[in-house]
Every structure is written in C-alpha cells, then in structure tokens.
Amino acid sequence: METKDIGKWNDRITIIKRLRKLRKNPNIRVRLLMTTGCIEYWLMLHYKMYVPPLQTVAEKERVIAEIAVKESTYVKGNQQAIFKIAENYPIAVINSEKTIKNLLQDGLPGLEDTDIRNQWLCRNCKTFSNVYEAINYLESLKN
Question: What is the DSSP letter of 30?
C-alpha cells in the first residue's frame, strides 16, 4: 500500500466482490493481503518490529539498504537471499500482527478481516503488514 493506492479501493473491492461470486463454496474466503510500501518492509519484519514511514522513494530505499545489512546477498529478485530471509518467517508473523494491533489506536476498525477494515487500511497509508493472516490460516490447515 502506498499513497498512490488510496484512490484504488473501489477497483479492489469490485474485484474482490467478483471473486466472491465465482466461489463454488461460500465458506472460501477471498482475502486482501497488504504490506506497506515495498516487499522489503515485509522482509525486514523477519528480523525486527519495525514501523518507519514508507511513503517516499528515499524511505523505501532505506529499508532496502537495511535488508542488505541483515542479509548481505540481498538484492531485489535474489531468490536465494529471499529463501534465507524467509527462514525467519515466524518472527515476521509476530511482528506483522503487532503492526496491525498497533493501528487500533489510530482508528483501525477491529481486527477481523472485513471490507471496512481493509478499506481503512487502503486509505490511511499507515505502515503495516497483514500477511501474517494468510500464514496463520495456511498453518491452521495442517492440523
């Protein structure tokens, strides 16, 4: 999610509603998973709790540089470096969940995955990731 995405909510909800109509099983959820700014923000959450502003190119480049400090072989698209970072995904799950919980004080409407909550996330340009929700769901299928 970036500032340029604020006006795209109506397009996104239209697609989500269309996908919901295509479901053969109404219990299958159609999810909108989001991370602020750049993929490197999600990758940084694999190492630490981190909520910097991520609106400008300079702010995003700073996150990319910090990832390169954590994983020296990292450059965009380097699959091996991403695999190495991904080994820390349990930390990213914890940290990304914290980013969402922290937004409650800023007015985030509840923690449940709803269209109202997702609209708020799309339009408020806060630093967050809700990718943990997909990981938690997929891990629940193992049981």
Answer: P
